[in-house]
Amino acid sequence: MAPAVLIENLQKRYGSVVAVQNVSFQIEPGEIFGLLGPNGAGKTTTIRCLCTLSSPDGGRLEVSGISVVDNPRAVRRRLGYVAQEVALDKVLTGRELLQLQGALYHLPKAAIGDRIEKMLDLLDLGEYADRKTGTYSGGLRKRLDLAAGLLHQPDVLVLDEPTVGLDIETRIAVWDFLRQLREEGTTILITSHYLEEIDALADRVGIIDNGNTIDVGTPSQLKDKVGGDRITLRIREFSPPEEAAKAKDLLLNLPFVKEAIVNPAQGNSLNLVVTAENNTLLTIQEKLRDADLPTFSIAQSRPSLDDVYLAATGKTLMDAELAAAGTRDLKKEKKQQMSAK
Ligand SMILES: Nc1ncnc2c1ncn2[C@@H]1O[C@H](COP(=O)(O)OP(=O)(O)OP(=O)(O)O)[C@@H](O)[C@H]1O
């Protein structure tokens, strides 16, 4: 069976800006695939090319074996796209908006009504359906957006930052809904820079940075690759720097401690990378006690996706985001986006 999504060596530039240099990944039918990367990494551009909204400069793009470039109409029938920013026409009611969407997808008239009722029911939107969307909360808008993306029963649902700006309850409801869709066989591509979102949902993850795919795998595979457990420890709630430095030197002498850094932003806490062995926490506490250093708190965890990202790119998602923020001219991009295709 052809993969639900195939992206091979995708390239896309906007004038002199290289938005995507070399992005490649495949998504199997029925998978939730998470695309992870900081602002400006090329996620939205990749998705826009896949959804036939931008034309790629190079590479192979297919949906269920159908070429996106040669056969965009057939691809559009199989894809549902939920964009990052919701552009709802505020004077239409939810139901009217879905009717318009149905017409845009050329759904048979007789089927549209039933399908809309099903979507309203599925997303618990029934009681709001006849209200103008201008009165909707962010969560309701997102639900309506999902309904619109799903109206034509796409095989592949593409979601760009689906829960940004939503409260935690609505976010969890969206996650449950996406899992339910996967159970029913829908393939889902989701971008996010909420690491916990990708960790909770994705069967596999692709990390992109600077327009390139850096790594692809299950969250667990990627974490195993990074290796080692993380320990965060505090001598006191706010430790004096010299005490933290002394603890760091002591702990670096332990054979299982691979790295240790002092984090001044967190009260001079210590962040350690250790090989996963028994009794590491106990041994660390004993070592500190013998040197008359107390332990205020200590916790051990597996590497997170942020650690994976750090290992892959040499920076955390947060660092990369800050760096990208300084180099973007959002107004100019918006203008270009309107004129470009
Ligand atoms: N229309 C455009 N014109 C010029 N440059 C663009 C345009 N769209 C995107 N870019 C640039 O291409 C690069 C990739 O942007 P893209 O929006 O694909 O990243 P992203 O990973 O989706 O980021 P975000 O998380 O902010 O949505 C960035 O450097 C961005 O500034």
From TrEMBL:
<feature type="domain" description="ABC transporter">
    <location>
        <begin position="5"/>
        <end position="235"/>
    </location>
</feature>
<dbReference type="InterPro" id="IPR050763">
    <property type="entry name" value="ABC_transporter_ATP-binding"/>
</dbReference>
<dbReference type="InterPro" id="IPR027417">
    <property type="entry name" value="P-loop_NTPase"/>
</dbReference>
<keyword id="KW-0067">ATP-binding</keyword>
<dbReference type="InterPro" id="IPR005894">
    <property type="entry name" value="DrrA"/>
</dbReference>
<dbReference type="GO" id="GO:0005524">
    <property type="term" value="F:ATP binding"/>
</dbReference>
<comment type="similarity">
    <text>Belongs to the ABC transporter superfamily. Drug exporter-1 (DrugE1) (TC 3.A.1.105) family.</text>
</comment>
<dbReference type="Pfam" id="PF00005">
    <property type="entry name" value="ABC_tran"/>
</dbReference>
<dbReference type="GO" id="GO:1900753">
    <property type="term" value="P:doxorubicin transport"/>
</dbReference>
<dbReference type="InterPro" id="IPR003593">
    <property type="entry name" value="AAA+_ATPase"/>
</dbReference>
<dbReference type="GO" id="GO:0043215">
    <property type="term" value="P:daunorubicin transport"/>
</dbReference>
<dbReference type="GO" id="GO:0016887">
    <property type="term" value="F:ATP hydrolysis activity"/>
</dbReference>
<keyword id="KW-0813">Transport</keyword>
<protein>
    <submittedName>
        <fullName>ATP-binding cassette domain-containing protein</fullName>
    </submittedName>
</protein>
<dbReference type="InterPro" id="IPR003439">
    <property type="entry name" value="ABC_transporter-like_ATP-bd"/>
</dbReference>
<keyword id="KW-0547">Nucleotide-binding</keyword>
